[in-house]
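Tokens in:
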């Protein structure tokens, strides 16, 4: 890989980067903009106030648009601190509820999908697009729902196998 990068001029564009510009841009998008948005707009800036892709015919209705390259910063700007807390609580609940359990061969696909979902949410502060991309958002939410549904299905099957030895009258009262 290093040899290929060393031979191709197009792959050496990183050598022409100005470090000051890169540091300024990363500083704006990750740290200072988020903290500024938190202090300036604790209740949010309204729909579209986080710099999302609003159609041209609605852009005149936006006021005090703040551009931020951070998905959680965009959520903060559009929904406020409470919306951000609810969203983070949802992510934590999702990752706990969808955990595939013990790693066995038949659960490898569930574990890989859980890791892909977790890394998607972990990587969201690096830029916007996780919840505004047209196919990605729907596929991500579908994967989240499938993971939680599969985990609940496994838990109910485990509960029913535990109560299989009970008489029919006692099965109705177990695990309710």
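Residues out:
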């Amino acid at each position: 890989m290093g040899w290929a990068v060393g031979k191709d001029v197009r792959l050496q564009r990183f050598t022409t980067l100005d470090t000051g510009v890169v540091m300024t841009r990363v500083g704006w998008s990750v740290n200072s903009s988020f903290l500024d948005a938190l202090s300036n707009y604790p209740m949010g800036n309204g729909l579209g106030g986080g710099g999302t892709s609003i159609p041209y015919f609605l852009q005149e209705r936006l006021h005090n648009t703040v551009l931020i390259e951070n998905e959680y910063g965009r959520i903060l700007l559009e929904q406020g601190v409470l919306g951000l807390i609810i969203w983070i609580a949802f992510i934590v609940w999702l990752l706990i509820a969808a955990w595939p359990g013990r790693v066995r061969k038949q659960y490898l696909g569930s574990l890989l999908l859980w890791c892909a979902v977790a890394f998607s949410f972990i990587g969201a502060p690096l830029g916007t697009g996780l919840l505004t991309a047209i196919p990605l958002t729907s596929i991500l939410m579908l994967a989240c729902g499938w993971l939680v549904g599969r985990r609940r299905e496994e838990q109910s099957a485990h509960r029913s196998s535990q109560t299989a030895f009970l008489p029919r009258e006692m099965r109705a009262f177990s695990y309710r």
